[in-house]
Amino acid sequence: MSQQMHMTSRIDFETDLKNEMHNAFSSFGLRIPIRSKIDEMLLDYLTIHKKVISPKKRSVLFNPGLRDKLATHSKSKEVEVIKNRLETGKDVNIFQSKRLFQSHFHDHLLYEWNVFHFHLSLERDKKSNFVKQTNQLLFTYVDSEKAIMLDIDNHKAGIFADERWLSLIDKHFPEVLEKHVHSEIMNFYPELKPVERQKFWNYGYSLGFTKVNGKIIGSPGVGRTTSGHSMLVVNTCNEILRWLFTLNRHFEEYYDEICEVFDINPKEAKFKLTFGEESLDLIETITKKTLLSFPKMFSIS
After folding, report:
1. Total-model pTM
2. Residue 232: how many CA atoms within 13 Å on its side-chain side?
3. Distance CA 256, CA 103 (A)
4. Taking residues 162-177, what's their average pLDDT?
5. Most exposed residue of 177, 196, 220, 272, measured as fewest CB within 10 angstroms of its CB?
6. What DSSP line would sit under 241-261, residue for residue?
7. Which segments of the chain are extended strands (E)?
């Protein structure tokens, strides 16, 4: 066995990634076994990660109608608590569905339109780490920089597929949806009511477009696959698996060259995949150097 083959035999990036996901599941309070098939484990992990709102500081904006409503609303205190937690970077996932950490529970409203819903209670559920699930929900658009509180409504048929959420964003914060407007499309059929749209989503169909305030808007969250998974999640899963395959191939063929470029002793080097705060990183554990972060790859000619 050549020295290079001997060195690369100590590298097992697939096991590294499985262990990182296992640890991440444990941090969610989940006991998920390490599976033999990395694609299934990765899809489950990314599905949960998609639904979890990362605890970081965000600016919070209000639909003017909701702000007026809160002056006398019975749930104004709960909304204020959620607002403060978003602004200060504290966890707001306790206000989400108790099924949040179930990988087979898919949030169509999030997958299609990037809109979350929060349960308006400050009382903890005794059987979980979430607040008590309530009939009144706060619908909120969330991205990495901001949260837009849209309105409060009851849990009822069609509410999770109501174009009103996009309409409020378009009316008061049009810059958010601007890049998703398809001015070249004048109309499309059939025009669906919320209950009908929800049925389509439940059956695994992504419609792609919604007519809002006379505009045709593409889904900000892209949509879901027939399996129920987010299209973005499935795409990311495939990209990571391809990245992992290429990474393994590069180390098999260019181990010594990689060590030389990063000034690492090839006989002592220990390479490992690990999760950063919001990244998947390749590190060398002895020198503590970060060599790559997904999706970047070595430039080898």
Report:
1. 0.92
2. 17
3. 40
4. 98
5. 196
6. HHHHHHHHHHHHHHHHHHHHH
7. 59-62, 115-119, 136-142, 146-154, 209-212, 215-218, 271-275, 280-284, 289-293
